[in-house]
């Protein structure tokens, strides 16, 4: 559900869905825990799309 939401966001902001998916996979590999720097993984993904 979250991944679909993020892909829809990527399309809305003109990002390449494949690029976004690869970025999310990379973030999942780098972030082994649910919490990192005080933010949940999902929030970090959403924020990464906004940059």
From TrEMBL:
Entry keyword Signal: yes
Alphabetized UniProt keyword annotations: Signal
Organism superkingdom: Eukaryota
Cleavable signal peptide: 1-17
Record flagged with keyword Signal: yes
Protein known as: Uncharacterized protein
Organism: Gossypium aridum (American cotton)
